[in-house]
Amino acid sequence: MADALGLMQFLAAVSELARGATAPTVPPVWERHLLEARDVPRPCFAHREYDEVPGAMSLGLAMPLDDMATRSFFLGRQELVAIRSRLTPDLQKRASKFDIVAGWLWRCRTVALAPDSDDEMRLIFIVNARGRNKKPTTNTNSKGIPDGYYGNAFALPVAVSKAGELCEKPLSYAVELVKKAKDEVSMEYMQSTADLMVLRGRPLPCTTAGTYSLSDVTKARFDSHDFGWGKPVYGGPADAVGSPSMPWLASFLLPFKNADGEDGILVPTSLPRPAMDRFVEQMGQLLVGLSTDDVATL
């Protein structure tokens, strides 16, 4: 019925009414037809997120799920500057905060899991389609998603790479793949996804052993809704590392304030214990060589 931003809008409306408002600030909009498939479905993107990948990978066979470790990592201003400083000058200017964090985590996680160099690694993530207007195209809605739309309006683009390339190439390679996949999402992309759903019978996203799912909820602000009792202590995912049966598959990016009062991003992560040791080592290298000048200029 609704995605995270739609749920946030619903909770905001209920909290306003609970505090005595006669109507919500943003009235709800139905408009479900905007994301329906075309009369003649014709997907026009590759949609690798719905690939049908046969067989198992060496990575999947090596997952010791009986010995998992879970840790949380805080990324504040220094850490974000350190990640950005590892990019090419051009990409430092073009990449968003999500691009650099997602690229960094994907690469560190791949190094930590130590898959075969030919294994295919996938990063699948949620992109909000609201505000992603395109110029008018034939039989495609060009107005975009209206304010107040609370239904599902997200895409699941995927960045794909061979493990060897992801581990050996500079960080800019991973970040560029993330950015390219994210930037594909538009109203035309959403229409293409709806068309694919019709033609292929609503397939589920591809989740091979090399898939990592990342969901950014730093802007959802579920902790900001006051129902008349004051702001909540916490609002967000109940399980921060995905499915209990596959805890290594997913992570959330959560808004967090550390003990020093610094706002940043918390990344709960679950991995097999040997891989977690390597992941911690990768994260520990983040601030190595970072100068105060770097922090000041980026």
UniProtKB/TrEMBL annotation:
Keywords, sorted A to Z: Transferase
GO molecular function, a single term: acyltransferase activity, transferring groups other than amino-acyl groups
Superkingdom of this protein's organism: Eukaryota
Pfam families: Transferase
InterPro entries cross-referenced by the UniProt entry: CAT-like_dom_sf, Plant_acyltransferase
Recorded family membership: Belongs to the plant acyltransferase family.
Name this polypeptide is given: Benzyl alcohol O-benzoyltransferase
